[in-house]
Amino acid sequence: MSADIIDGKAYAAGLRERVAGLVPAFRAATGRAPGLAVVLVGEDPASQVYVRSKHKATVEAGMESFEHRLPATASQDELLATVERLNADDRVDGILVQLPLPPHIDEKRVIATIDPDKDVDGFHVVNAGRLAVGEEGYVPCTPLGCLMLLKDRLGDLSGLEAVVIGRSNIVGKPMAALLLAENCTVTLAHSRTRDLAGVVRRADIVVAAVGRPEMVRGDWIRPGATVIDVGINRVPGAEPGKTRLVGDVATAEAAAVAGAITPVPGGVGPMTIAVLLRNTLVAAHRRAGVPLATDAI
Ligand code: NAD
C-alpha cells in the first residue's frame, strides 16, 4: 500500500483564492480593505523572510498590509506602545508580532497587550481560553490549517482516535482542542509519554509537532491512518555543505503504511499564511459587523 499525498500547497492556494474572492464584498460594504499589521523587531533573517512573505500574501489577497519594523535595540515600552497604537487603529483588523523577540523583551507581556479581537495568530490567553471552552475566537494558524487538511481528506472526524505528538501552546495544545471539538478521542502525547510508538499505533489521525527529524517511524503507524507532519527540520543533505528539510515523520516508511500523509515541504507549511489571511478576513468582518459565512472559506 502507498499513502495518498495530501497536497497542502494546492489546498493553501485554493484557500488564498477564496479569501481574496471575499475581499471585494467587504470593501463594498465598509469602504475599506481588511488590514493586517505585522510587527518585526530586529534583523533575524528567518523572521525577515516570514514577514516579507506575509506582506506579499496580504497584498495579493487584496488586503491592506501595515509593516512596523523596530530595531533590535527597541525597548519593551516602545514595542508595547506600537501594539497599543495598532489596537486603536480602526484600519487594522489583525495584529501579528513576529516571534521570536529579542531576549530583553517579555514575549508574554507583548502578546497580552494585543487586543484579543485583533489577535489573528490566536496566541492571546483569551483566545486560548475561548478555544478551550468552545467560544468564538481566533485559533493559531498552523493547527487550524492542519484541521482543514484533515476535514478535507476525511470529512466528519467524529469518533476517530487522534494522537497529537507535542504539547506546545502554538501547535500541539490548540490542535488537541480542535480535534476534541470535532468529536475525536484525543491523546496529547509529549516527551514524557510512555510507549509513544504504542500510543501512536492506536491512532486513525496522527499529528506530529515535535521538532525532531523523522522521529515517527513507519512501524508506529496504524494501516490506513492519516498522518499530518507539522515538523520542519533542517538536516545535512546528500552533498557536503548542502541541507534539506525533513519533517517529524519518516515519510517514506510511514507512506508505505498510512492512508494519507502530508509531505515536507509542501504539506502543512503553506497552510500557515493562508490561514493567517483567513483569520484576518474573519476579524475584519466581525469587527465591522458584516456577516461572513465562515464555512465558505
Ligand atoms: P516546541 O519545541 O514548542 O514543542 C515541541 C513539543 O514536542 C514539546 O511539547 C515536547 O513535549 C514534544 N517533544 C519533544 N521531544 C519529544 C519526544 N522525544 N517525544 C514526544 N514528544 C516530544 O515546538 P513547536 O513550536 O510546537 O513546533 C514543532 C515543530 O513544528 C517544529 O519542527 C517546528 O519547526 C514546526 N512548526 C511548523 C509550522 C508550520 O508548518 N508552519 C509552524 C509551527 C511549528
Q: What does the model show?
A:
By secondary structure, the chain is an alpha/beta fold. The protein folds into 2 domains: 31-115, 3-Layer(aba) Sandwich (Rossmann fold), CATH 3.40.50.10860; 141-270, Rossmann fold (3-Layer(aba) Sandwich). It has 10 helices and 11 strands. It has helices spanning 8-30, 45-60, 76-88, 107-113, 125-133, 141-154, 172-181, 196-200, 251-255, 271-288; strands at residues 4-5, 35-41, 64-70, 94-97, 161-165, 185-189, 205-208, 226-229, 233-236, 243-246, 260-261. It has a 6-stranded parallel beta sheet. Strand 2 (35-41), helix 2 and strand 3 form a beta-alpha-beta unit. Helix 6 (141-154) runs parallel beside helix 7 (172-181) and helix 6 (141-154) crosses helix 10 (271-288). It is globular. The mean pLDDT is 97. Bound molecules: nicotinamide-adenine-dinucleotide (NAD).
* Percentage of β-strand residues: 15-25%
| Unreliable spans | none
Report the biggest beta sheet as strand number plus sense, adding barrel if it closes.
6 strands, parallel
**Element-by-element helix/strand order:** EHEHEHEHHHEHEHEEEEHEH
SSE-based structural type: alpha/beta
Cα distance, first to last residue?
Answer: 33 Å
- Give the tally of β-strands: 11
Ligand set: nicotinamide-adenine-dinucleotide
CATH domain class name of the largest domain: Alpha Beta
